[in-house]
Design a protein that fits this description.
Layout (H helix, E strand, L loop, with lengths): L1 H7 L1 E5 L4 E6 L13 E3 L3 H9 L3 E4 L5 H19 L7 E2 L9 H8 L8
Parallel strand pairs: 3-4, 4-5
Antiparallel strand pairs: 1-2
Helix pairs in contact: 2-3
């Protein structure tokens, strides 16, 4: 319902729990969100959802990249199967702390590097 509204400028739906009468959204979209949609995908379900939406996969560096590769490959495979196109490159979304020393950055970032000189 949301993607259709972003394509057309009107939201509407006949959902079981929340029927939405046709309503113009403002500001009206200037262009579609096709190829501009991103989805954080970490679990099996979220990887599948990202592929179904044809969304670029966004992930965090919360484990070794070798452990991330199966999810990236799954997203690529399912996007190809569902949409007949290659998935857009996966993105990472991480934070960094830049300060004068590793010790300060470690303390501010809550990492074990706070004990560095």
């Amino acid at each position: 319902m949301i993607f259709e509204a972003l394509r057309t400028g009107f939201i509407e739906g006949r959902g079981k729990y929340y029927p939405q009468p046709r309503t113009a959204i403002r500001p009206r979209p200037e262009r579609t969100f096709d190829n501009r949609t991103y989805a954080v995908a970490s679990s099996e379900d979220s990887v599948e959802s990202a592929a179904r939406l044809n969304a670029a996969m966004v992930m965090f560096a919360d484990r070794a990249w070798e452990a991330r590769l199966p999810a990236v490959e799954k997203h690529r495979q399912r996007t190809r199967e569902l949409h007949g196109v290659d998935a857009r490159p996966a993105l990472t979304c991480d934070f960094c702390v830049c300060l004068a020393s590793a010790r300060e950055a470690g303390r501010a970032g809550g990492t074990p590097y706070g004990d560095l000189p």
